[in-house]
Fold this sequence. Notes:
alpha+beta
Amino acid sequence: MVHELMHDPFFLGQKSEKATQADVNIGRDLMETLAAHRHDCVGMAANMIGLKKCIIAFTTPFGNMLMYNPVILKKDKPYDTEEGCLSLLGGPRPVTRYEIIEVEFQDVNFKKKRQKFTGFTAEIIQHEVDHCNGILI
């Protein structure tokens, strides 16, 4: 189900709760909402659809990907950039990101994984993990 986007900075500024297998429908809804916004959005966290769970969905060169409970373990090669966010009013804002990250997460089957990401995909993941941690750009 496609959800309306959350714009309340107080809600978005709260840390998300750990996702469990009972939250599988939230993951599905998040993927559907991301697909519905594919023309103006490359990533979403569950709190952006009003659900305070640590779940992110994002685009990759190979299709959309879903992560439950992502944690960034390593970061390398910082750079400054600007990012926008569908949940926040106003234009792009300055932020520091990392070119290379290593993430531990649970996949769609809740199997624990560890994977490296680079470039724009790494930037998207960092933005969405920040959302899970209540950090807004």
